[in-house]
Amino acid sequence: MVEVVQRWTARWADTDGGRLSRAQLEELVAGVARDAAAQAEAARDAALRRFSALYSASPTGIALADPNGEIVEANAALGAFLGYKTDDLRGRDLAGLGYGAKDRHALLDGLDEVDEAGSEPYRQRVRLAHADDVGTWADITLAVLPGDRPGAAYPVLMVLDANEVHSLQETLRHQSIHDPLTGLSNASRFNTLLEGALGPSARDQIALVYLDIDGFKVINDGLGAGVGDKVLRRIARRLREVFTSHDPLIARLSGDGFAVLLRGRLTAQEVVTQVQRALDELREPMYLDDHGIGVSASAGIVVRDVADGGPEDLLRAAELALHRAKAAGKAQWMLFDPDLDARDRARYRLGAEIGGALENGHFELVYQPMVKLGPSGGLAAVNAGLHWNHPEFGELGSEEFYPLADITGMTVQLGHWLLTESLAAAARWRERHGEAAPDICIRLPGRLAVDPELVGAVKELLDRYRLPAGALRLCTDSPSLHDPRGEVLESLSVLTDLGAKMVLAVTGSADLELIPRQGLKVRHIILTGPVVDALGDNPGAAAVRHLDQLVTRARELDLRVGADGVRTSTQAELLREHGVIAARGPFVTDSATGDEVDDLIERYAG
């Protein structure tokens, strides 16, 4: 334009001092206008050629539409992406390019948003309809171009291929919510869907099944982790084959732990039937790498209305049911029982309170004296045990809290308290009665018997109270000695080397024969259980004969024989006549407190 102005200015100036006529001036102005229009036309044509070249060569698919959304032009890239010739796209509705109803609605929403010129572009990922009647993922941008008259707006659709990006994102999403080994849902997705299944809009029933593979470590350690992984994949496949109804969600929660969630109208019997079938299927051998591998599983089952509690309650109930199934012998299912749960809650509450009760002095020693059977009388030993004086539940015996202490890890602390208080009592008796004082007899809890610090603790206590090791008797039984690692026997053997006396509870000949077979350093045996019970009122000849066999064999092994659970003086006399030298039980007293046992020792020592 500058060149046009300069050129025509020069022509106006070159008039040789003369004046231009009206016609001449009009000719000059018309020339200016023609020159300017020609230059503008040339620039517009050049811009159109550049736009057309860019439009045609662009790798981005582009469709130009009229104000009604009907395609008037489409470039080759869009045709190639959708599998159409560009001519086939002309005349189609922009929104009609969507593959499904959801995609078409997304395009319509976009057209509404960019209806006016100057609106922000609309971007979305949708599926577009391919000529092969499949959906193809695209990142679309909808915008408007200004029209040839004020207020007119022409939609333009720009399309980028998003199939690879979408596939990668879907792969990553799948990996984030699925177990990579089995392809089942992982714990994160399971918990999310469980919360949704118990949401406010949920109806009918819900069932949760926890499955745990019994002894899976044997497969992993024996055949290798590679075989173990193959077994887990087979297990996942069999679970999919069994659980096919009631909208199942199957997940792998841990190494060998699985969960199944069922929803809808269902009954406990329906769920139990499916679980039993799953356990049966898992028992069928799997042939992997020349190994025929059979597995068993334990299952905990909860079936309830969705309105009966939240996810935490459901998960806890399934876990408790699974624990009961395993405790009952594994390879079976167990249905959650609310009554049992209430009792378990009370038990676990006790377990949680053991530490505080020990610190606050709620435990005390109780004693059971063992009386010598014979004219000399006297107390041979006093058994010491623990009782818990619970402020709400009253007096609790050791059988009620030791199993809970094992669960909470308090057994060793309780055992050390028992040892300390018992040896302190024995030292007091020795100080008062000298050699007439009885030995103290303690049955060590299993967890304490394998504690690596036990021997050192016993030796320190004996030194502290100036007690000879022979004043301590340690009672055990056959099941304890069958500890597969031999730790109980090892601890007891070291303590007997220090001078403590090992006492073995005997219920029959098999227990007695453990002594020579394993070379046990046993000094005393205690007949207990059916051996003594059979010697009640009017004992039969077989019971007496059995007693004589045990006593005879004990004498051969140079053992002293006592008896536990003796109810009457008549029974005690019968035992004495057949070689038993000491006894404890109701015929003396069921149990005695510290003061009561002090009185007994005083009386018998006198």
In summary, what is this structure?
With 606 residues, the protein is α/β, with parallel strands linked by helices.
Description:
The protein is of the alpha/beta class. It is built from 23 helices and 21 strands. The chain is 49% helix and 22% strand. Helix 14 runs parallel beside helix 16. The longest helix has 36 residues. The model has no long low-confidence stretch (mean pLDDT 84).
User: Per DSSP, what share of the residues sits in E-state strands of 2 or more residues?
Assistant: 15-25%
Specify Rg, calculated over alpha carbons: 46 Å
- Structural class, from secondary structure content? alpha/beta
Q: Give the oligomeric state of the chains in this entry, treating copies of one chain as homo and distinct chains as hetero.
A: single chain
DSSP strand count? 21
Major β-sheet strand ordering: 13-14-16-17-18-19-20-21
Task: Please name the fourth-level CATH homologous superfamily of the largest domain.
Answer: EAL domain
> How far is the N terminus from the C terminus?
137 Å
Number of helices: 23
> What's the CATH architecture of the largest domain?
Alpha-Beta Barrel
The total number of structural domains is 4
Task: Write down the overall geometry.
Answer: elongated
Average of pLDDT:
84
CATH fold title of the largest domain: TIM Barrel
Helix content, binned percent: 40-55%
Name the CATH class of the largest domain. Alpha Beta
Sheet of most strands: 8 strands, mixed, barrel
Please mark out the parts with pLDDT under 50 across 5 or more consecutive residues, or reply none: none
GO biological process, one term: regulation of DNA-templated transcription
Domain PAS: 47-118
Domain EAL: 347-605
Protein name: Diguanylate cyclase
